[in-house]
Amino acid sequence: MENPGFVMHEDGLSNTAPSKIPQKNGHLYPCEENKRSYCSLMKLFLVCLLACLITTTVGVLILSLVYVGHFSPKTDTAASTTANQPSQNNADSRFNFLNNLGQSKVFTFQGGSIQWARFRNNPSDYSSPAELKFGTSINKHQSMMTLGTIRIFSQGMKVPHWHLNANEHGFLLKGKAWIGIVEAGGSTVTTFNITAGQVVFFPKNTLHWVKNVGDEDCLFISFFTTNDELKTLDVDDAFFGTPEDILSRALKPEGGVQFIRTFKKPIEDQSINLPANLKDLVNNASYAQSANSSVWKYFYDLKGSKEFSYPGGVMQWARYRKNGVGLNENEQIYSDSLNQHADTLTLGTLRIFSNGLRVPHYHFNAHEMGYVISGCGQIGIVGDEPVSEFTVGVGDVFYFPIGAQHYIKSTCEEELLMITAATTGNQLETLDMDDYFHATADHILAQLFLKKQDEFKKIPVFTVDQSINIP
Ligand SMILES: *[C@@H]1O[C@H](CO)[C@@H](O)[C@H](O)[C@H]1NC(C)=O
Ligand SMILES: *[C@@H]1O[C@H](CO)[C@@H](O)[C@H](O)[C@H]1NC(C)=O
Ligand SMILES: *[C@@H]1O[C@H](CO)[C@@H](O)[C@H](O)[C@H]1NC(C)=O
Q1: Ligand 3: distance of its center to the CA of 292 in Å?
Q2: Proximal ligand: closest to the CA of 192
Q3: Ligand 3 site, residue 328, Cβ cutoff 6 A
Q4: Which residues pair with 174 in a beta bridge?
Q5: 3-state secondary structure of 228
Q6: Is residue 467 part of a domain?
Q7: Is 264 contained in some domain?
Q8: Does residue 377 lie in a domain region?
Q9: CA 166 to CA 153: how far, in whole Å?
Q10: DSSP 3-state helix, strand, coil percentages of the chain (rounded to 5)?
Q11: Using CA atoms, how far apart are residues 163 and 234, in angstroms rounded to an integer?
Q12: Tens of pLDDT along 73-92?
């Protein structure tokens, strides 16, 4: 991106330099010709001067027009994704950190639908300026996260696929799903059922499928560990992208290539499918659950895990802990699995009671993205750019860049419930505002705030952790 910019700039300069010279020559010649006349040398000189001035002016005008014509479209394409369009609605700087996902475009399939809070390579692929702002922001901040909500109808299936450039961490909000995961080598297939409130982890490029085995819709809130466009390959697309003879050689089926030709490429995108004649196609869907030692590499019972209580709310975590501190045997398997893969996430649910406040804090080692499941709240961010406090409700996605201080206040009568993801497969490092105030010597605070040292004794230390507090 930067190199073409430089080339353009240099082209521009070398264009202006030579084109200036002929202009000058152009108005020097008539002046010299006029020297031959002796009668009204002065008059002629003045006329000549005027001509010179006019040609120079015209020349400069032409040059500047050429300059503008040459440069403005280039600057447009170079900066349109980052600067131009967002700057038109600066008032909505909150959309750098907020995505009203519930109102975004729904991508529908036979067996379900998907909505995205993500970056797009082509700015015209966004369905609103607010979405563009959010996508641009997470990409610019290198958030290492993209969020999608995936709905699968009863008996529908997210077909076997893998993600080329991201891990996936899914939180099942409702329904019941049967998961299959194929590891490298193909000899290990891990399958298990998951229910609402539980978490699934698909490492980058592991082949996986998700089938709704319940009666109601499944709804996954999925975090993908990339801030670029997510790249996915479905098994049917990989199949139909391979020549018949190669398929026949690779699979060696009875009937050879004739058998391969009986496969028909579907017209519609199969991403989430639900064939009308499913009952005729499938006659035995039973499949054993894998052993805990395999299942928990990809599964975590977030809802059933330890609750961390504070005066104003409750947190639960699906995360890595050093030496498995505080985790049971199965949870340790998950913890180790996260730590062994690159770019994994720390997931958590955050429940804030009515009028509770997750006090201002920031993370040393992670970006954070979250989705509002129920309730409503107010969010404030202090970071590298100004943004005013904004409200969030059900279906909204929020984003906190690494190091940016943020708070969340629960503002409805109903409690505020969120699923959040932080970009670390190590222990999340967090610093709360009250803690850094107490940790900073009061004479330093006195000098900083131009306030008497004794005044800072008015900020009390509590025995109970105030991470989520009430007034
Ligand atoms: C159904 O499939 C399972 C797993 O492949 C197998 O163990 C079982 O015997 C099959 N049942 C019938 C009735 O074919
Ligand atoms: C998963 O759930 C389905 C539907 O309730 C059930 O038929 C199946 O036996 C379960 N599988 C396992 C491995 O528990
Ligand atoms: C697997 O883990 C569950 C708890 O999640 C436990 O109830 C079950 O007994 C374990 N199974 C085995 C075979 O250890």
Answers
A1: 6
A2: 2
A3: no
A4: 219
A5: coil
A6: no
A7: yes
A8: yes
A9: 25
A10: 35, 30, 35
A11: 9
A12: 333 333 333 333 444 445 58
Domain containing 135 — which CATH number? 2.60.120.10
What does the alpha-carbon distance between residue 143 and residue 228 come to, in Å, rounded to a whole number? 9
* Angle between helical axes of 41-79 and 2-34 (0-180°, round to 10): 170
Beta bridge partners, 350, equal 315, 418
123 DSSP 8-state letter: G
Name 363's bridge partners. 430
- 330 Cβ closer than 6 Å to some ligand 3 atom: yes
Is the CB of residue 292 below 6 angstroms from any atom belonging to ligand 3? yes
3-state SS, residue 421: strand
- 253 C-alpha to ligand 2 centroid (Å): 30
Q: Whose CA is nearest to atom 5 of ligand 1?
A: 287
Q: Which of 176, 193, 209, 295 to mutate to test the pocket of ligand 2 (most atoms within 8 A of CB)?
A: 193
Q: Count CB neighbours of 358 within 10 A.
A: 24
The two tokens of residue 117 are: 């809070």
Instruction: Name the CA radius of gyration of the chain, rounded.
Output: 31
Backbone angles phi, psi at 459, to 5 degrees: -95, 105
Tens of pLDDT, residue by residue over 261-282, are 999 998 888 899 999 999 999 9
| Phi, psi angle pair for 267, to nearest 5° | -75, -45
Q: Per the structure block, which two tokens stand in for 188?
A: 């290990």
| Sheet strand arrangement including 199-202 | 107-109, 112-117, 146-152, 218-224, 168-174, 199-202, 299-300
Q: Which two tokens stand for residue 291?
A: 């052993």
User: Ligand 3 within 6 A of 193 CB?
Assistant: no
CA–centroid distance, 305 to ligand 3, in Å, is: 14
Bridging pattern class, strands 397-400 and 98-99:
antiparallel
Q: Beta partners for 207?
A: 182
Q: Tell how far the Cα of 287 is from the centroid of ligand 2, in angstroms.
A: 8
Report the predicted TM-score, pTM, of the whole model to 2 decimal places.
Answer: 0.81
Least-confidence region, from 18-32, 100-114, 455-469: 18-32
Is residue 27 assigned to a domain?
Answer: no
Give the total number of structural domains in the chain. 1
Asked if residues 350 and 370 have their Cβ atoms less than 8 Å apart, the reply is yes
Domain interval for residue 211 = 92-279+287-432
Query: What are phi and psi for residue 95, nearest 5 degrees?
Result: -70, -5
Q: Give the CB-side neighbour count of residue 428, counting CA atoms within 13 A.
A: 24
